[in-house]
Amino acid sequence: MITVALPKGALLSDSIKILKSVGLDFSAFLDKNNRQLQIADPTNTAKGLLVRAQDVPVYVEYGQAELGIVGYDVLREKDPAVAHLADLKFGFCRMSVAVRQESSYRRSLELPLHARVASKFVYCAKEYFRQLDLPVEIIPLYGSVELGPITGMSEAIVDLVSTGRTLRENGLIEIDVLFESTARLIAHPMGYRLGKDNVRDLVAKLRETTV
């Protein structure tokens, strides 16, 4: 039986939709009255795990799931030891640097030396500013990072942006994009190489849906 780790949150509905297109039905996870975190597909050929998006690659890396669906942003932040198999082409968003609208900064390189940057994506933020050779202080925040510039705690933020509505409503604007992110199909490297439980057949079907 193949085990698939599915992400709670924004990617869940489309993840279930694409899996259903290849014969696996985990729609029960969408039922608000369902509290189960592990369910079997009606065909009893696969099992789904419902976990936090950040935990999907952990379950796959440690072999508790053969496959997982997760945003590219999570993979960039965690750099897990998993096989990257396919861009599933949904969940489009971007990792961006944003500042207050009234600030004078319009590019990341215009930020002052040792500026404070708030982000829940600490590794991505550090790497980005390291590549710019711009020393900054990264402030880890795991709630509403938009409050960083609003309260004056930071000059900028690094965060995921989809429509940009949250930024606009809080008086922030994007000034640079680090990278774009979509949902990705990942696998446990050994399990995929060995083709356990016909995992390769399932991967091939999922790849066909993205062509």
Summarize the structure.
The chain has helices spanning 12-20, 56-61, 72-78, 122-131, 147-151, 165-169, 189-194, 199-209; strands spanning 2-7, 38-40, 46-51, 67-71, 83-87, 93-100, 115-119, 136-140, 156-161, 172-181, 183-187.
What does this structure look like?
- The chain folds into two domains: 2-91 and 182-209, D-Maltodextrin-Binding Protein, domain 2 (3-Layer(aba) Sandwich); 93-179, D-Maltodextrin-Binding Protein, domain 2.
- The protein is 28% helix and 30% strand.
- It is built from eight helices and eleven strands.
- Strands 2-3-1-4-11-5 form a six-stranded mixed beta sheet.
- Strand 2 and strand 3 form a beta hairpin.
- The longest helix has 11 residues, at 199-209.
- The radius of gyration is 19 Å and the shape is elongated.
- 36% of the residues are buried.
